Every structure is written in structure tokens, then in C-alpha cells.
Amino acid sequence: MKARMKKVYPQTSTAFAQDDRQAASVSTDLLPLAMRLSTTLASISEAFATLDLTGGFTYFNKESERLLQRSAPELLGKKIWLEFGEAVSASVQSKLEQALTTKHHVEFEEFFVSIGKWLEMRVHPFEEGFAVYFRDISARKVAEEKIHHLAFYDILTELPNRQLLLERLERAVNDMQIAQQFGALMFIDLDNFKTLNDTFGHLKGDVLLQQVAERLTACVRQEDTVARLGGDEFVVLIQGLGLQSQVALSKAQVIASKVLSVLGEPYDLAGFEHHSTCSIGVTTFGAQPSSVSDLLKQADLAMYQSKSLGRNMACFFDPHMQTVASANAALNADLRTALQNHELVVYYQPQFDRARRMVGVEALLRWQHPQRGMVNPSDFIPAAEETGLILPIGQWVLEQACQQLAAWSLRPETAHLSIAVNVSSRQFRQPDFVDSVVAVIQNCGCRADRLKIELTESLLANNMESTIAKMNALKAMCVSLALDDFGMGYSSLSYLHRLPLTQLKIDKSFVADVCTTPNAAAISHAIIVMAQSLGLEVIAEGVETEAQWRFLADQGCGYFQGYLLCTPLPLVGLESFMRSHKE
Ligand code: C2E
Ligand code: MG
Ligand code: MG
Q1: Position 220 pLDDT exceeds 50
Q2: Distance 490 CA to ligand 2 centre (A)
Q3: Of 432, 446, 462, 552, which sees the most CB atoms within 10 A?
Q4: Where are the alpha helices (DSSP H) in 84-161?
Q5: What are 324-339's pLDDT values in tens digits?
Q6: Backbone phi, psi, residue 18, to 5°
């Protein structure tokens, strides 16, 4: 008997390991008590039962019958752990023991699988057993779960949200530190998601986000966390990457590559095939203590690094990146006030034809920083593009150029000159870009055919149709269009004939090598031939030597710009250059 009881209730403590003889006598002694209780407690609206010290039911009231869906005769004398398997679970057992040893009542919640209900149990110990009150708290539990779900999960994708991610990350950082193991945090941002949303609407965007969530979840193990931070930003938290940082890095790299390839597969957005890529930033954490907010910043920075290096790739955070980022942050803060403080200046670099006659200039932005001195555009334009500051800045450059054109148009010796203005992709993509160019030209009273807009190949990476439409609208106004840094980007040559371009600009990196590297020579030659076949002008930028000039001129390049001929100059310098350059 003792053996049998041990078998059913293997973890029975001394408090429960009553001698069966004693248990039996308690049980029979309790019988009259149970009968008295049954009369006095019949009116109680709460579900109430008594158990003897061995867990056998000695009393079971009407409400208990209703709640536990069992009749009293069925249960009396039966052990609770045999009738309700869940009641022998470790938590229930330890609560009963606790009540017995402390001689105090205990309250706890337990899910009764057999009846599918959450019950709150209040157990009062007395000498011969326990008085147990049951209360159905299922409705509260469902509500709690719903609230929990709303608070910790993203509604659209059902993924954990930022809040839950932060909690899990905090725990993961601690766990990995204790286990001396490495984990990784991965920031994933979809490339050009905004374009999809703007072009095809939010419903299609939502479908894409849901599919991305499913694919990401399938990429990682169940114990890893895939969260959505909002918008098109996802985070993957991976733990247990091993004890060595190098190994952890390479494992994280493998996962990142997998994510890149899985998210790069075509999507079916309700019958329409869509292609998307993502940029990933990865940071690792391990034995050294690290703060959750630092890790998030690091992964975010690394992700931005991926974006700036051309997207569709994964970058790892390292301390050097942090240093660069801090310096950039300071510069960005200053850039916000640069325009109001009149610290921006337009320089002009002359452009020449084959006869070395000056035909126009390119407007190149400079920042006269009060402490740092002259800052070149490559040090602040990328950040300005990221923050959107490029919009007011680009507008200002355009206004300066058009005012200058208007001033030159009044003088016969300068009326023929054109000004090329660099327009960043973000600026060009503004829905009102064409209108704003029209407005500036009209306000300044300059000739539209003297204005040239330089675009870069990155603009052609997506949304080709709307890009072409805008280019056509500008062309219809007689504004010229040049494709800058040609040969460097990823533009599809097959589209080139569809673009209403006036000019291709051979990137200065090819020009620099044109006399020394056969490849560069071959590329510039091919660009010139292709431009001629498409009826486009070709200009070489960054011409520094006579040898480069000669080589390019011999191949048929029509226009030139570079230090050999003239450096970028402020307006005053340009005016004096023009005077001295007069043939
Ligand atoms: P970009 O449009 O390709 O401009 C040509 C760059 O080559 C200029 O650099 C110019 O100073 C430099 N350069 C000219 N001749 C030579 C040469 O002989 N040798 C070498 N090595 N370089 C030469 P900069 O002024 O630093 O401008 C860099 C880039 O910043 C520009 O490249 C353009 O993409 C961007 N940028 C400049 N101004 C603006 C602007 O107003 N708006 C926008 N969105 N971007 C601008
Ligand atoms: Mg340019
Ligand atoms: Mg260029």
C-alpha cells in the first residue's frame, strides 16, 4: 500500500507520507464531520471541498460539482491527483505542503486541463486535512492574456514588439554573461519599403511585412526571438553562439547571409510579384557586461553602415564604426543650423569643350564650418540625405544656381554658360520636385535651357517609371539632364535608351586610371562609344593631367572638367578666372 502510494505520488514529502493506517482512521473519523459540513455548507455559493491528508476528497459541495463537472458521489474518497491529473503537478503539491507546514492558508492559480478552466484555489489546512475553495478565473485569465498580447506583441505580424524584445534582450545579456557564451543582435531594415508603400499602398506593404515576419521566424531556432520594432524594422536576437567570439561572429554571419537570401526571394503580394532586399546590422554580446541600449545602438549603427554601403548586405558593428558615428552625429547637429547661419557656400567648377572653351560650370556645395574650416560635401551630404536636411539644402543650391544664371544672362560674355546642379535621389523623389524646379526658374527669371540637373545612377535602382516621367517633364521644360558618376553604379544599361538624358559624366575614378589601367581605358572608351550611339554628350570629370585629356579627347569625349583646367572656385574666384581665361 505504501509502495503503491509512493508510485502515484512519487514526490510525497514527510508531511504527506502519512502511515496508511493513520490516513484511513483520519478518513473514517472525518466522515461524520463531512456530513455535518455538507449540511452547513450546502448554502455556500462558492465551490468548496475538503481533502484528507492523503489528498482524498472528503466533502464536495454543489457548486464544486458544477465547476469541476463531477458529482460528489463520483469523487468522495477518491484522491485529487488521480481525478485531476494537474493537481499533482509540482506547484499544487508544494502549495498543499506549504499550507500544512506553515499552518497558514495558501492561494494559487492552476489550469485544470481536464475541464479546460483556470481555477484559483485557496487551501486552508486543518488538523485532519484541507478545506479547499475553488474559483473560476478563466475569463480574467483570457482578458489578461489578451492584454499581455496587446502589450507585448505586434498586431500586424504577431511578432514580439519592442517592449518584449527589450525584456528578452535584458535576460539574454545576463544569461550569456553567466554562461560565458556569445549571443548576437541583428537589426534588419527593408530596403526601399517606403517606395512600395507609396506606390502600391499600405495594404500591399502590410502583406509584405507579414511575409517578412514569417520568413524571419523560419530562419531562426524557436528559442531565438524575432521582433518587429515598428515600420519596416525587425530585430533578431540569437543566443548560445558558443564560447569564442570569432566562432560566434562567423555563426552570426551565416545567419545574416541566410536572412539576406531568404528575404531576397520574390514575394507574392496578392497576385503581384515583388522583389525586396534588406540591410542588416549585427552586434555581438557575451562575457563582458553590455547594456541593452548600447547593443541596440550598435546594431542600428551597423545597419546604417549597410545602407550607406549600398544596401542588401550585412555589416558588423565595431568600435571604429562607433567613433566615426559619434563624429558624424556632432557634424549633423551643426548642419541643422548651417543654412540659417549662412555657412553654406556654392563653389563653381568650370566645364570645357574640346577646344577648351568654357561652356558652363558645376555647382558644388561647400560648408564653411566656424570651427572645422571648409568641409567637403562628401563629409556631410550623405548624412544630410539620411536626415532629410538635403531637401532644404538642395533647394537652396538650386535657387543660388538659378539666380546666378539670371545674373549671367544679362551679360553677353556669360549668357551662354550653363550651370549643372547635383540633385540627390531623395530630393528628386519628392513628389513636388518638378514643380519646385519650375517655381525656382520662374522666380529667378533664368533660362531653363541653361540649367542642367545631375542625377546619380542610384536613382535608377527602383521606381524607374516615375523617375522617367519626372525626367520627361523636366526635359519638356528644356532643362538638361546629366547622369553623374557614370560607370560606378548599378544602373541597368538596358534602361539607358529610355532616359531623356542630355549627358553622361564618366566617373572620375575611371578618368584617374585611364592612362595607367587598361580596364579603366576600356570602360571609358565603351562609355564614350555608347553615349555617341545614343546621341548623348559625354563629359569626363576629374581630369587632372594633359595625358588624360589627350587620351579622352582622342576617343571622342566632348567635354571636360577637372583640376587640370580649373578647381572649384567661389563666385569671386570664378569671375576672375573667367576674365583671365577670355581668349
Ligand atoms: P560630383 O558631382 O561627382 O562632383 C565632382 C567632384 O569631383 C567634386 O567633389 C569636385 O570638387 C571633384 N573634382 C573636380 N575636379 C577634380 C579633379 O581633377 N580631381 C579630383 N580628384 N576631384 C575633382 P566635391 O565638390 O567634394 O563634391 C563631392 C560630391 O558631393 C559631388 O560629386 C556630388 O555628388 C556631391 N555634391 C556636391 N554638391 C552637391 C549639392 O549641391 N547637392 C548634392 N545633392 N550633392 C552635391
Ligand atoms: Mg556632380
Ligand atoms: Mg561625379
Answers
A1: yes
A2: 17
A3: 552
A4: 90-102, 138-152
A5: 656 766 787 898 899 9
A6: -70, 150
